[in-house]
Design goal:
Residues 130-168 are annotated as: Disordered. The chain is 56% helix and 4% strand. The chain is mostly helical. It has three domains: 1-118 and 170-186, no CATH class; 187-334, no CATH class; 338-470, no CATH class. It starts with a helix and ends in an 11-residue tail after the last helix.
């Protein structure tokens, strides 16, 4: 009975497709619980990625097997893509229900996240469970001075296996993300998210060329879902949204262009990133207002505190709740809501950073963009607090904190430059070496320095004023009730 109530609560928190077999649903629920639940973390801190990985692989094995939930699956037709050269081929799942396809997608993406976190982790060859080791602990030709294993209370000082005795503990992320991209039956949003996840992984691994190619692939995916067969909304060479085509922009287009701009910004290619950010900001400002108001359409959420989750679980034991409706495919034009306003603030923050770092002549513009981003983030956050709107709130909080920190760093740098300028004038000899105009120039430099010192004070006051937004006070747990 206890296990039944527990699994029913898991099902409520992590719904699984109704047309899957019992054990496939059980495995996916436990995989998600292990990955996302605070209660499943090791010492309440670390996610047990090895355990989550075992669950995800078991789910995928059943879904792709004719003996279980993979009946009538057909291999996808080769498309001549990069995945074909790697020997990674997906399936044709278009005949399966939307629930089945969504669950399969979640399992593949979950396995991809596990693979990213288990990169560089290995285990003894042939073992499917048991202890895992970091590659830095394994002695071999590439690691002649391995890092010793930490002392273990049960095992003592263990001797690790050699490089010839181990293999990767988990397949590479590439395998799972590419399988999403080569499977026929996923919608545009699902394929786009897989492409961007893989591109981000390539960036992390320093595979700049592969990341670049994957972002271009992602742009093609986003444009493939444009309504009416529209094309050329994005210049796929630069990632810039075409001027005059803002009315045809979809959520997927905005998402991939922003990600591509961030990719360039992280690589230091500010000249490529800035035009993309500006084009995305222009497109977002042209979004139509939501017919539901600035908050957008809201769904009623059941209480999830105290005894309520367990009471709902007892109810669900008798009557199974319907599977959640599918999320939007991303092929729709978004409305301008508070959530979208938060995205605009994030773009303004990026633009301010880039302008300030570009050249000395653009520093004032960068500061102006950063100030405006802080003003906008604060205004949006106060409205969210008043309307009790949670969607996009965490993103807006991050933008406000980042904007305040950037503003502070920029202002301090300007104050240091003003002080340096004052010292240079004091040590100089003025015009023609006669000291002409020196006093006036020193006074101007002092006023400039005082201006930035005063701005630093104002920034600190602003940080204190926005503490209720950036560090909200959370109510104490009230026990069972």
């Amino acid at each position: 009975m206890t296990i039944g109530i527990q699994q029913t609560k898991f099902e409520r928190d992590y719904p699984t497709p109704r047309d899957w077999s019992f054990w496939s649903r059980w495995l996916l629920r436990n995989a998600k619980f292990t990955e996302f639940s605070e209660g499943a973390k090791v010492h309440q801190v670390l996610i047990d990625w090895v355990k989550a990985g075992r669950y995800y692989l078991s789910v995928l094995e059943r879904l792709e097997s004719e003996d279980y939930d993979g009946k009538f699956l057909l291999p996808s037709v080769a498309s001549g893509s990069y995945a074909d050269s790697l020997g990674i081929a997906g399936f044709d799942i278009s005949a399966k229900s939307e629930q089945w396809r969504r669950g399969y997608y979640e399992a593949l993406m979950g396995a991809g996240r596990v693979a990213e976190n288990l990169d560089g982790i290995c285990r003894r060859r042939g073992e499917t469970s048991g202890r895992v080791y970091s590659r830095e602990n394994i002695p071999g030709p590439d690691n002649p001075r391995p890092k010793p294993l930490p002392w273990d209370k049960k095992r003592g000082q263990e001797t690790p296996p050699t490089a010839d005795e181990v293999e990767d503990a988990f397949p590479s992320p590439e395998m799972f993300y590419m399988k999403v991209l080569t499977t026929n039956g996923f919608d545009t949003r699902q394929r786009l998210d897989a492409a961007m996840a893989y591109a981000d992984w390539c960036d992390f691994k320093g595979l700049a060329e592969t990341a670049e190619d994957t972002y271009h692939w992602a742009m093609d995916i986003a444009q493939s879902g444009l309504p009416g067969g529209a094309t050329a909304v994005i210049d796929t060479k630069t990632g810039v949204i075409a001027r005059g085509r803002e009315d045809e922009v979809t959520e997927n287009v905005l998402k991939v262009c922003t990600a591509y701009a961030v990719h360039h910004a992280k690589a230091g290619n500010v000249k490529q990133a800035l035009p993309i950010f500006l084009s995305v900001l222009r497109a977002r400002k042209n979004l139509p207002p939501s017919p539901y108001g600035v908050i957008g359409k809201k769904e009623l959420v059941q209480q999830d505190e105290g005894l309520w989750p367990y009471l709902y679980s007892l109810k669900d034991l008798i009557i199974e709740r319907p599977f959640p409706t599918p999320p939007p495919s991303g092929n729709e034009r978004p409305y301008h809501t508070l959530k979208e306003a938060c995205e605009e603030v994030g773009l303004m923050t990026y633009i301010g950073e880039i302008l300030f770092a570009t050249s000395d002549s653009e520093r004032q513009k960068g500061l102006s963009w950063t100030r405006d981003s802080v003003e906008a983030a604060e205004a949006v956050m106060w409205v969210m607090e008043e309307q009790k709107e949670e969607e996009g709130k965490e993103r807006c909080r991050e933008c406000l904190e980042t904007g305040l920190q950037n503003w502070k760093d920029m202002s301090r740098q300007m104050a240091r430059l003003a002080a340096q300028k004052e010292r240079e004038i004091e040590n100089g000899h003025g015009w023609l070496g006669l000291g002409l105009g020196k006093a006036r120039r020193i006074a101007e430099a002092q006023r400039e320095k005082e201006r930035w010192e005063e701005e630093n004070v104002q920034i600190q006051l602003r940080k204190e004023k926005t503490l209720p937004l950036t560090q909200p006070v959370k109510p104490l747990a009230g026990g069972w009730l």
